[in-house]
Amino acid sequence: MTEANQPRPEPELARARIHFGSDHAAADLRLELAEAARTDGHMIASDAGPLTEADSVDYPDIAVQVCERVLADPGSIGVLVCGTGQGMAMTANKMDGIRAAVVLDDFSARMAREHNDANVLCIGARVAGPGLARLLLQTFLGATFAGGRHARRVAKIDAAGG
Ligand code: RB5
């Protein structure tokens, strides 16, 4: 058998450990995204939030809970969904070590990881439909931080505000 005919190992799937969270406005989307991520081979490390839209909660409580889990689990990713993604991101970005990005398009989903080393993805369930949200999650999880000059800039993000 020539070398070219040797069976090749399957390319290793980059499995992410994901901490999910949503408020009531995005309960359905959160459950759908978690199922999609599981199907894609990722690990659902934790899940926070109501199971139905009828069970109202305050998004900052969920954002803090999920970000604490991300910080306690180095290398993991947080996914926070609410109506717009904005309130989740505003809360998450107050926490040291969290870089949360509200993402609504595929390019930004990739750049948020490659250039900004975002560790939390925020999506608005009242803005993005489930198909787009799933694509954004796949792109975010499939991208990696580029390092180099971006590392210097990300260090400045982390240092900003004392
Ligand atoms: C809840 O009504 C809504 O305010 C919340 O889901 C989110 O959009 C906040 O940013």
Helix and strand succession?
Answer: EHEHEHEHEHH
Structural class: alpha/beta
Give the spatial strand order of the biggest sheet: 2-1-3-5-4
Provide a count of the helices.
6
Please provide a written account of the structure:
The chain is an alpha/beta fold. It has a single domain, classed as Ribose 5-phosphate Isomerase B, Chain: A (3-Layer(aba) Sandwich), CATH 3.40.1400. It is 41% helix and 16% strand. The protein is built from 6 helices and 5 strands; from the N terminus they run E-H-E-H-E-H-E-H-E-H-H. Strands 2-1-3-5-4 form a 5-stranded parallel sheet, sandwiched between helices. Helix 1 packs across helix 5 (130-142) and helix 4 packs parallel to helix 5 (130-142). The longest helix has 13 residues, at 27-39. The radius of gyration is 17 Å and the shape is globular. The mean pLDDT is 94. It binds D-ribose. Residues 23, 25, 59, 82-84, 86-87 line the site of D-ribose. D-ribose binds at residues 23, 25, 59, 82-84, 86-87.
